[in-house]
Amino acid sequence: MAVYLFYFLVFPGxxxxxxxxxxxxxxxxxxxxxxxxxxxxxxxQPFYDFFKLLLVKETILPAQGxxxxxxxxxxxxxxxxxxxxxxxxxxxxxxxxxxxxxxxVIFYLLxxxxxxxxxxxxxxxxxxxxxxxxxxxxxxxxxELTFLLVVAAVIMKSGQKFDLDSIIAAQQxxxxxxxSISGVLLFIAGVFCIQAKLGLVPFDMPEAEAELASGIxxxxxxxxxxxxxxxxxxxxxxxxxxxxxLLMNGMTNGTGILWLILKIVAIVxxxxxxxxxxxxxxxRQASSFFLLWMNLxxxxxxxxxxxxx
Length: 309
Prior knowledge:
Layout: H1 2-9, H2 14-35, H3 45-55, H4 67-92, H5 102-109, H6 112-124, H7 127-157, H8 164-173, H9 181-197, H10 209-212, H11 222-247, H12 256-276, H13 283-306
């Protein structure tokens, strides 16, 4: 029991994921600053921001809505992100092999943060938060099908393996899935799904600071908002790690940990460059992008995979 608590709370669990996600958040902000010809924040700025919200800022509850649900939603987001990260990182770090069907469990756990933001924003009773929640729901409907098809295609390429450890082992026994044409197409679709799951430009319509004054997060402050930031830090780390496990060979022995870090950082760099070189889309445009073009791309990848390409 103590071992499992250590896995969940320390390594590769909550504390490790929070620290890694905070460092990747700094990397994201630093690259953004350089693109905009600014200096950028110091290395520990994401941690300063988190602890300032957690320990200094006060929690202001909205006058309308349900205070209990409003406060519970950020905790549910952190729980979903941490549990998904645990199921991803244990087999990725060769600590435990997971269980049959854990890829499906991971897929559903990764949806919990987004649904938590919707629940919390609706519980606030703020009309701008409700508009953000409506956009978030439409966005989820759009990209989750694409993400599910990406996972299904990887399962097919691995020989009908439904556990992450076997998917990684199938790549290490042969070659990384990204080394094929279908793998490249799946990687492209997966990166855009990550962009949408993280709520980054061009898919930040639910937050839309210029239009909705932070939208779904408008009523959050203090420790509850710190939990939202923590969930986002964790997701920024585990989503690229999931793509690495699905398509990029996971972690091998020897210098594998170094290559794993470089692959995760490279995906975060790609996500950062996309969000700094594209304008925000309208929700209708985002829905069309995923439901039409990205789904078509993944279907083509599945057909190519069926022919061994």
